[in-house]
Design brief:
Structural class: mainly alpha
Shape: globular
Largest sheet: none
Order of helices and strands: HHHHHHHHHHH
Number of strands: 0
Helix content: over 70%
Length: 345
């Protein structure tokens, strides 16, 4: 947050005298300063005073109306400035600012995009909290039927052809489990900020792919970048919703512990398949990038993005090799293989 909003303010001051028919430098400067003030307030309230309280120093989160008024004022100011930037960029498509001052225009577009994503996440959570119970009522019979059929098929397959009807009969007569309590949402500002940054990056990739889709390229780099962007955006949103709506209580009963253990195994298998798909698609993208001869000149933006993703893929492969090497060294030294997979804090 400090780096991004500081870059907005510095960009506005360095390009203040560059001609632009829209007040985008003012937007960048004010939005950057508001973001810096919000970053300082978040750091003070959530990081400094999150530790043990020092004697003689009051905690601003517990006393008085001043901290609440300051936070509310910063929030309203940031929302107003963000809406101001979105209106400027949406109502001025015929502006020549993207030609006369391209740096300011691109930074203003990036700031407006980040504000739009952050606002969408804030609106998405309460909407899903309202819609999920209704969706659960609609989908519960269908999901229960599928679960019953899956359990019957598993039991019937284990017992063989004899006793399959008895297995189905027992499953259909099982009493339904107690309804789980409704999950409460959690508020975590850092989670929203990190998800906004990830979604901003992947949405930017999709926008660049759309802008340069008609440019010729001797390798399918458009599809490579677009697929990575869609997969990354989907994973970011799914992980965000999981963290927001997850059950904060640990499993207590044996049934809950067994269900949690099965869920961890399923998640580990899904992550293994996802990692395999990422390695396969990243390897194909690296081969396509190395075999391209004209894309760097005909579609330079797509080529640079594909190069960036390929570098990230090489770094990922290097990290995996380092981890594998450390596991092998640990196995050779101790005679046992220790592998810990951490899902949550």
């Amino acid at each position: 947050m400090f780096g991004f909003h500081g870059a907005l303010a510095v960009t506005a001051m360095l390009n203040w005298n560059v001609p632009c028919d829209l007040p985008l430098p003012w937007f960048l400067l004010l939005f950057g300063l508001a973001g810096l003030a919000g970053s300082v307030a978040y750091f003070v309230l959530e990081v400094v005073f999150d530790r043990e309280q020092l004697p003689g120093i009051p905690d601003p989160r517990r006393g008085g109306r001043t901290p609440k008024l300051v936070v509310s004022a910063l929030l309203l100011l940031t929302i107003g400035l963000g809406l101001f930037g979105v209106v400027l960029l949406s109502t001025g498509p015929s502006s020549s600012c993207h030609v006369t001052s391209p740096i300011v225009y691109k930074w203003a577009y990036a700031a407006s995009l980040a504000f739009s994503i952050f606002g969408s996440l804030l609106v998405l959570v309460p909407l899903l909290a309202i819609a999920m119970p209704f969706l659960a009522v609609l989908l519960m019979p269908f999901v229960a039927c599928l679960a019953t059929c899956a359990q019957w098929m598993d039991a019937a397959g284990r017992r063989g052809p004899f006793g399959a009807s008895g297995s189905l009969h027992r499953l259909l007569r099982l009493a339904p489990e107690e309804e789980a309590p409704m999950l409460g949402t959690t508020s975590n500002f850092a989670l929203y900020v990190n998800t906004t940054a990830l979604c901003w990056f992947f949405v930017y990739l999709l926008i660049e792919v759309k802008r340069n889709w008609l440019l010729s390229c001797d390798a399918p780099l458009h599809s490579f970048v677009g697929a990575v962007a869609m997969l990354g955006l989907a994973i970011s949103l799914v992980d965000f919703l999981h963290d927001v709506f997850k059950d904060p209580m640990p499993p207590l009963t044996k049934a809950e512990q067994s269900s949690a253990k099965g869920w961890r195994r399923s998640r580990l298998a899904a992550l293994a398949w996802l990692l395999g798909g990422i390695l396969l698609w990243g390897g194909l993208g690296l081969l396509w990038l190395q075999g391209s001869t004209t894309c760097a000149h005909t579609a330079p933006a797509i080529y640079r993005l594909a190069l960036l993703l390929s570098v990230a893929f090489v770094v990922l492969v290097a990290l995996l090799l380092v981890i594998l090497l450390l596991l092998l060294v640990d196995f050779c030294c101790s005679g046992r293989l220790h592998l810990y997979v951490v899902f949550d804090k």
